[in-house]
Amino acid sequence: MTRKALIVWGGWLGHEPEQVAEVFRRTLVGEGFSVEVSDTLESLENAEKLGGLHLIVPVWTMGEISREQCAAVSDAVTNGTGIAGCHGGMCDAFRTSVQWQFITGGNWVSHPGGDGVNYVVNIKQSSSPLVADIQDFQVSSEQYYLHVDPAVEVLATTRFPTVTWYHSSNRAVDIPVVWTKRWGVGRVYYNSLGHHADIFDIPEALELMRRGFLWAAEGKDIAVEQGLDGSIYTSDRKMF
Questions:
Q1: Is residue 146 part of a domain?
Q2: Does residue 197 fall inside a structural domain?
Q3: 45 burial class (0-12, 13-18, 19+ CB within 10 angstroms)?
């Protein structure tokens, strides 16, 4: 069965969403995916279609998602569709949607120093194949400070403070750069790199995304093979 992916790009153009979407499209096509690229959030409204995908890739910063659109994504991921993304395109996508933040595992709150900060991405010692044989590497970009779900599995971090700012009066902390989590049956992958498309000229940055896409999509294969669905996780109790 050919794996199907949907890339949805838009929002604030300073994050080069169209260019990042193209990098991700080429990566997924290279892995044998059938890829649809959309520049409208209306593509998230067809719950049945989303449920038939292996992977949803949001590349959309500072937008507004409707409750119905977010619910459709939630239902799809709950039942096995993977979701994977980067930087503000996933964890600063919809600031007013707490459901989106719960699904994705975190939300951007600052990038002290702005673009061009030199910092190190520290790969965690882990048995996860997502980071196997990848060494620490340096980038010059925005260094994301995020508020993060404690349930995530952290695979890479970066040390703050790098730039002196209000938060510098606190002790040094390691903020997650790469993490995974589950939402129902589905798999969630995030990487905070990706301010501009050229960050993926760094081999480690692109490889982390490639592996994340495959890992998230694999959850759909497992769900289909094992007859899994998210029914045990559903509830009519108020959550949002």
A1: no
A2: yes
A3: middle
Tokens standing for residue 159? 């040390």
Q: Say what the pTM is.
A: 0.98
Domain presence at residue 229: yes
Place of tokens 């190190």: 120
Phi and psi angles of residue 54, each rounded to the nearest 5 degrees, phi first: -85, -30
pLDDT reported for residue 111: 98
In this structure, what CATH number is given to the domain that contains residue 89?
3.40.50.880
Q: Number of folded domains in the chain? A: 1
User: Do the domain assignments include residue 129?
Assistant: no
Q: What does the DSSP assignment read for 140-208?
A: EE---EEEE-TTSEEEEEEEE-SS-SGGGGSPPEEEEEEEEEEETTEEEEEE---SSGGGGGSHHHHHH
Residue 238 has pLDDT above 90, yes or no: no
N- to C-terminal Cα distance for the chain? Answer: 35
- Asked if 163 and 113 count as a contact pair (C-beta separation under 8 A), the reply is yes
Q: Residue 1 above 90 pLDDT?
A: no
Q: SS3 of 114, please?
A: coil
pLDDT for residue 10 is more than 90: yes
Domain residues for 46? 4-107+179-233
pLDDT tier at 236 (50, 70, 90 boundaries)? confident
Mind listing the pLDDT tens digit for each residue in 50-63? 999 999 999 999 99
